[in-house]
Design a protein that fits this description.
Radius of gyration of chain A: 19 Å
Structural class of chain B: mainly alpha
Structural class of chain A: alpha/beta
Domain ABC transporter (chain A): 4-249
CATH class of the largest domain in chain A: Alpha Beta
Distance between the termini of chain B: 18 Å
CATH class of chain B: Mainly Alpha
Shape of chain B: globular
Helix content of chain A: 25-40%
Radius of gyration of chain B: 23 Å
Keywords (chain A): ATP-binding, Nucleotide-binding, Transport
Distance between the termini of chain A: 36 Å
InterPro entries (chain A): AAA+_ATPase, ABC_AA/LPS_Transport, ABC_transporter-like_ATP-bd, BCA_ABC_TP_C, P-loop_NTPase
Largest sheet of chain B: 2 strands, antiparallel
GO molecular function (chain A): ATP binding; ATP hydrolysis activity
Organism (chain A): Maritimibacter fusiformis
Number of helices of chain B: 16
Strand order of the largest sheet of chain A: 6-7-8-3-9-10
Order of helices and strands of chain B: HHHHHHEEEEEEEHHHHEHHHHHH
Order of helices and strands of chain A: EEEHEEHEHHHEHEHEEHH
Largest interface: A-B, 45 and 36 residues
Number of domains of chain A: 2
CATH topology of chain B: ABC transporter involved in vitamin B12 uptake, BtuC
Oligomer: heterodimer
Strand content of chain A: 15-25%
Helix content of chain B: 55-70%
């Protein structure tokens, strides 16, 4: 039984069958990549996981609990964190404040009216946030305005925000999209470390095969809304069906 | 020194605000009585009370608009609710404001929960329109439909045959706080040519305004305030970080509604009247102007903005042609008439034009409001004196953070 169990999920947008009969099982502590050509339904599937979309059929269970119909903040509180394709951070706030917000969400839950406490006096939150920033080598940037950072740093900050919540499952939507090769390699190293040191299960949606093959334990290939194959990276590499999906019938 | 759980910097900040508020009757009276510039003196009770009251209104509005970015166009509704509540307490009990003011805050909180719950289902322009619609509905209800409760266009006031069950035989026949009569002045010294007025009502509102400011300072520094600022920056990220944004925005809306109710109540505490026009959309728009003019999201901005607009409204509107003749009288006739003709567009009844131009200048050149202007001037001085802060090589500080 995996930590994330997807059974028979289908989603239709008007005349387009975006997903049909998707079955997927993500094993705990693994890195599971979902790849596929453009329009295969990868992002739709991710949006189902985080509560942004409700599928027409099927079920999505996380740790034995259904995530369907829950709001994004409820799904986060269950232990699922998400990294976006373009880093979503609090641009007007400092790096430290960004991470502290995550820490508060983890400690205090979805809503707490702490209007007469002082952020600077919350020693446990400050300490925790500093620790996380140090883990991702960003402590020197703690007072920086988040919007003024490079894209690589924004991604790293977003990752730090997710890590500070110690999630059980981390969903990554093309974490290296638009990055230079050096940044990409740094991100791969960071993700590997997160997976091994912290034992966080990851689901990655990715175009870049270099990233997928250096990280994933298991790969699902999605094409036209259906999983084509699910296997280890070694076997996926030479799989005829995968070649066909990516390069067309004649290949 | 640290006070009341504030950092050293904030304590200093609070002390400066307390000093300025307490010294207002002196600071706003810089010109001697009878001099040509005495028109610009603003140290009379009625105006000073208004500074404090609109300061409270704007501080509260800023908690919603400045922190979360939700622009309400209906906050005047709470102002009206607060005023009506206080006048009703005068009518039913007696002239002591101690019954009316807390009730005004409570009643406007109830209104704010209802209006906020519905309006906050939408954001951006739709939220603004919804709040505007609610405020106009309240205005029309107060103006005509609910006449038994609000006395319609005449406005609510105290009549001789009202019950006033707690009214004592020796009790003052105007609003007071345990005998501290709002209309009275406790000290009116004349020093040299200067005349100062120390008014009971002003000091009553001033102390409440300082408390209101302190509460907003605490909110700005709290985890709650941090979440509100995060809502303004990126609501999507906040949702995916596990925060339910709806109760946060509702709490901010209700708190700012309570501030507005308190301000409305204080208006009735200074002058025992309540009229529907207090709820009109222009009154809602005014607090928006105050907050933006002063600097939305800053602690000091709304207070500066409120002071600025009230000063213009009361001082510039008083400058009529005869005052202008007094100023330009020494000039040759042709020039005098010309100057008066030009000034005529900017003072007296046309003071709105001056305010409009000023507002445009601030929005275009100082998007952070008057506070940003002050910070720029301070930075200029710091550079000249060769201070160690080199602004160009510092990371940009987060804007809209209290300073």
């Amino acid at each position: 039984m995996g930590i994330l169990e997807v059974k028979g999920v289908g989603k239709r947008f008007g005349g387009l069958q975006a997903l049909s009969d998707v079955n997927l099982s993500v094993a705990e502590h693994s890195v599971h990549a979902i790849i596929g050509p453009n329009g295969a339904g990868k992002s739709t599937l991710l949006n189902v996981f985080v509560g942004k979309l409700i599928p027409d059929t099927g079920s999505v269970m996380f740790n034995g609990q259904s995530v369907l119909g829950r709001k994004p903040h409820e799904i986060n509180q269950m232990g699922i964190s998400r990294v976006f394709q373009t880093p979503e951070i609090f641009g007007d706030l400092t790096v430290m404040e960004n991470v502290m917000i995550s820490c508060f969400a983890k400690r205090d839950g979805a809503f707490r009216l702490h209007a007469f406490r002082t952020v600077a006096h919350e020693a446990d939150i400050v300490e925790h946030a500093e620790q996380v920033l140090e883990d991702v080598n960003m402590l020197d940037k703690r007072n920086m305005h988040a919007a003024s950072m490079s894209r690589g740093d924004k991604r790293r900050l977003e990752m730090a925000m997710c890590l500070s919540q110690d999630p059980q499952l981390l969903l990554l939507d093309e974490p290296t999209a638009g990055m230079a090769r050096a940044d990409t390699n740094n991100t791969i190293a960071l993700l590997k470390e997160i997976n091994q040191k912290r034992d966080i299960t990851m689901v990655i949606i990715e175009h870049d095969m270099h990233v997928v093959f250096s990280l994933a334990d298991r790969i699902t290939v999605l094409a036209q809304g259906t999983p084509l194959v699910e296997d280890t990276p070694e076997r996926i590499k030479g799989h005829p069906k995968v070649k066909e999906a990516y390069l067309g019938e004649s290949a | 020194m640290r006070l009341l759980g504030l950092s050293r910097k904030d304590t200093r900040f609070l002390l400066i605000v307390i000093f300025l508020t307490m010294a207002t009757p002196i600071l706003l009276q810089p010109f001697p009585e009878g001099s040509g510039l005495a028109t610009f003196n603003a140290g009379y009770p009625d105006l000073m009370q208004r500074f404090a009251i609109f300061g409270i209104f704007a501080i509260g509005f800023n908690i919603l608009f400045g922190l979360t970015g939700y622009l309400s166009f209906g906050h005047a509704a709470f102002l009206g609710v607060g005023s009506y509540t206080v006048v009703w307490m005068y009518k039913l009990l007696d002239y002591n404001v101690v019954y009316g003011l807390p009730l005004a805050v409570a009643v406007s909180a109830v209104f704010a929960v209802v209006i906020g719950y519905v309006s906050l289902r939408r954001s951006g322009i739709y939220f603004s329109i919804l709040t505007l619609a609610f405020a106009q509905m309240s205005y029309n209800l107060a103006y005509s439909v609910l006449t038994p409760l609000t006395n319609g266009e005449t406005g609510l006031q105290v009549y001789g045959n009202d019950p006033q069950v707690l009214l004592g035989a020796t009790e003052a026949n105007s609003p007071h706080f345990f005998g501290w009569v709002m209309n009275d002045n406790f000290w009116e010294p004349v020093i040299g040519g200067w005349k100062f007025t120390f008014n009971n009502g002003y000091y009553f509102t001033a102390i409440i305004a300082i408390i209101a400011f302190y509460v907003s300072l605490r909110i700005f520094r709290s985890p709650f305030g941090l979440m509100l600022r995060a809502i303004k920056t990126n609501q999507t990220r906040l949702n995916y970080t596990g925060i339910n944004t709806r109760p946060y925005t509702l709490a901010a809306f209700v708190i700012s509604g309570m501030y507005a109710g308190l301000a409305g109540g204080l208006m009735a505490a200074m002058d025992p009247l309540a009229g529907a026009e207090r709820m009109q959309w222009t009154a809602s728009g005014e607090v928006v102007l105050m907050t933006i003019l002063g600097g939305a999201g800053t602690l000091m901005g709304p207070i500066l903005g409120a002071g600025f607009i009230k000063y213009f409204e009361n001082i510039f509107s008083k400058i009529n042609d005869s005052v202008l003749h007094g100023w330009f009288g020494f000039l040759p006739d042709g020039l005098e008439d010309f100057l008066i003709g030009v000034s005529h567009f900017f003072v007296g009844k046309s003071w709105h034009l001056t305010l409009g131009l000023l507002f445009m200048l601030v929005v275009v050149f100082l998007p952070g409001g008057l506070v940003e202007g002050g910070q720029r001037i301070a930075a200029m001085f710091r550079k000249k004196s060769g201070g160690k802060d080199d602004a160009a090589h510092q990371p940009k500080p987060a804007p809209h953070v209290a300073e």
